[in-house]
Amino acid sequence: MSSILVLVEHRQGAIRDVTFEMLTAARKLAAPAGGKVEAVLFGDGCDAMLPGLQSQADRVVYAAGPAFKDFNYESYQKALVKLVAERKPSAVLIANSAFGTDLGPSLAVALNAGLVSDAVAFTKADSGFSVSRGMYAGKLVADWSVGSEPAVIMVRQSNFKPEPASLSGEVVRWEAGDVVSGGKTKFLSLEEVPTTGIDITKATIVVGIGRGIKEAKNMPLVQEFAKEIGAVLAASRPVVDAGWLPKEVQVGSSGKTIKPKLYIALGISGAFQHIAGMKGADTIIAVNKDPKAPIFSVAHYGIVDDLHKVIPVLRTKIKELAS
Amino acid sequence: MEIAVCLKRVPDTAEADVKVDATGKDIVRDKLASTINEADNYALEEALLAKEKHSANVTLVSVGSQPSEEVLRMGMAKGATAAARIDDAGLGGSDSIALAGVLAAWFKGKSFDLIVCGAIASDDGNSQVGPALAELLGLPHAAYVTKLDIQAGKVVVKRELEGGFLDVKELALPCVVTIQTGGNTPRYASIMGIKRAGAKAIEQAASVKPDSRTQLVRVYVPQVVSAAQMFEGTTDEKATKLATLLKEKGAV
Asked: A104 with A204, same domain?
């Protein structure tokens, strides 16, 4: 194995957690095979990020300049194609994020490289890599083989646990060259979705509802239930997509990350995007009619049943207990 | 203006028990209903909105076997102008970039201003085809778009980032965008639309030879390692135990 390049993902001056998750995974992959881990940082005025990366990688390749002021897949891709040609890595790790998805597939095409996205585990094979990823919203896992190098691996966020390290990787300041000319896309701005009503990140008890709610007419049932136990109502993506609750109460990687004392997941199967946003809750209770639902892998208490049957009975029992 | 939408017919597994078939590389499909990929439905809606606003033509394309024509007919029933099916014979086991290559071969020589795809496939969970297709065609792209504004010679998109942020970008036309769910409200087809679509021809195309750089080894049901304490019994018994727990936790 030669090296593993890990693309540092950062936004608004801060390195995103997934970077350290990838660096941890990369060290575990590289160490037994004698490979080196190289963190690749593209940015403008990001010198302050270097020490945090040096302890995590054998080398930090840093290309600085205004071209990298904001994320743009075109400039990142041009720079990575050049860097891969120079460094000849065995693998390039990119976050399976919104930035990473803009970059990974087109980079793989440009490199004529094999790509596996949403990777949850990977090992070195005799030739290339073996990579596991989810399918059918986590109901299945698929193992893929990437026979050629470099492999481009897009790594699922909040999957690997970041670990501290005490390396002291040298910083190599690298010239990416002209990565701007011929560009057909332009960054305009970063907008924050405003929170206008309830801030679910501040709630002690949160009731999360998912696809299992089925229809808008079933909403009052869970709204009443939430009110009775002093909880705020949150949701997984399908409920927000359907317009039954506002975007600001969406829990998950593209919504909010919450850490309430108590989280009650009703009819939520537990797609990894959702779990990423709620697994830090002190106590997690899940009600789902599918015993194999991934939500039970993070729940502390579980009920396999239809929420539409459980909640009305539960409300009666609660009233009895409270009186 | 010419707009193309890439559609995929997928098994509806949101509430289904998914089983691995005898090959160990696919799922048992015969008991599953099929549907349009969820994100593709939002992509289609985005194209239809653009058609109404900019008097565009909307052409649908799907890679699949004959039953994939269901989603193409449904798309035409909602208002798409034309449709093509690229037969998937010989494409078993192909990876997403190979499929993007199959689509790219169909697109070569045609002239579309905008190609719209769903951001993510609900079956394989991949989000690769749109951006890979763009690269193969030499076009710019944007992934996870929730808002699309077509202007003269360009589009302004809002891309959904993690943590409640939007990445606002401008792309020169022609380009490829992949649409995330939730940005619009997909319409239903009217009875009249369905009748009209039934009579329309669907272009039949053959696939080029796929070029996969990755190979599927096996699929399997993950072991759900659950440390959860499960409440068993009748609904009444389970609700009683849960009510007691909620009281312990201070919610009652």
From this structure: no
